[in-house]
Amino acid sequence: MATASQPLRGKTACKKIFWAVFPHACFILSLVIYAFLGALMFSHIEGSRKVTFRGEYKTFLQNLTYLARKLSDNVTENEKMFKNDIHELFNTADPDWFINPEERWSFFGSLFFCCTVFTTVGYGNTYPVTRIGKYLCMLYALFGIPLMFLVLTDMGDILATVLSKSYNEFRKVQSKIQASKLCSGSTCSKRNELKSRAQSKIVINEPLTIMEVLRSQSGTKRRPVKYRNVELFEMLIARENENKQPARNKSMERWSSCPELAREKAVSRVIKNFDKIGKELEKLDVPIVLMVLVIFVYISCAAAILPNWERNMDFQEAFYFCFITLTTIGFGDTKLEHPKFFLFFSLYIIIGMEIVFIAFKLGQDRLIVLYKKVISFCAEKKMPSKKIYPK
């Protein structure tokens, strides 16, 4: 029986794990599919457009040629004037004149653009030019941003659980170390003796035997023999059933006999998991200094790796770029030469945005507590003191 029940227990455990992981995998898979569909759409629309040079482009080239000819051999005299003129000229230029759409809007380039849209980073280096591309970008962001926030909230529960458990375990270990330092030998021995005495007073009642049950039923002797024997017989049967038959899980019996009920139970459990999204994040209570330290270490790890393929970045520039990205500020002042390599950091960006979001949430809670204290303090100061008049 034990060997036959082991595969059944393994299958039920696998099913429980599957239904527990299913909501989280569903959200992440939906976001990945949404990003790939958007990349295919924008690469087809923006990458296949024809670049038409209008009169402004020809005027720009003529002015640039004129400035180049105007520059005399004595560069030092006209250098300052030439810099001002060339600066004003390039301010009137359209950046789209110097971009090859097929290279900029490749599949990986479009995928990078989609990630900057629904993560609300928006560097500004890549943007739609065609009218239909702008309309589709607004529609894409309208559905992509809520989906991204849903993924962030869901992963926030996981990170909040990990952080809270880790912090609680750390506090337990810290309290044990402090208790061991404060505890001397005599006091600890006294505490152990008290514990042993308390445990020795515990009495475990064993099941009554049949003779003990018969002796305890002294009130039944006054009744007629026929009724007395029936009552004793029923009590003995009930007692034997309690001792011999183990407690059975009726729900498991119903599930094994009717698989539809098992599926219905699993589906209802998954629906309850959807309803619990964001609950663990609300209950998280860790020091804000710990979250700042986690963010610093998290960004430092990426800043040490990013300069390996982005040669124009050092550690400080990469740290600045990662911070601007994870906080969704996205100035666009730092450009990536190989954005498709940075796509491998997609999971890093999502987790990092979640860590920053948790830090902002904790900071918000601390600010609310501070505002409450300030308002209550000001209210107590302004309240007039009660005067006691003599009777």
Write up what this structure looks like.
- The chain crosses the membrane at residues 17-42, 105-123, 135-153, 286-306, 318-336, 342-363.
- Its main location: membrane.
- With 391 residues, the protein is mainly alpha-helical.
- Among the domains are: 21-48; 51-98; 101-177 and 273-382, Helix Hairpins (Orthogonal Bundle), CATH 1.10.287.70.
- Helices cover 74% and strands 0% of the residues.
- The protein has 16 helices and no strands.
- The protein has helices at 2-47, 55-70, 75-91, 101-104, 107-118, 131-182, 185-200, 210-216, 225-244, 250-257, 259-275, 279-283, 288-305, 315-326, 339-342, 346-382.
- Helix 1 (2-47) crosses helix 11.
- It is elongated.
- The N and C termini lie far apart (88 Å).
Give a short summary of the structure:
The chain crosses the membrane at residues 17-42, 105-123, 135-153, 286-306, 318-336, 342-363. By secondary structure, this protein is mostly helical.
Give the key terms.
mainly alpha, KCNKI protein, 391 residues, 74% helix, potassium, Helix Hairpins, elongated, membrane
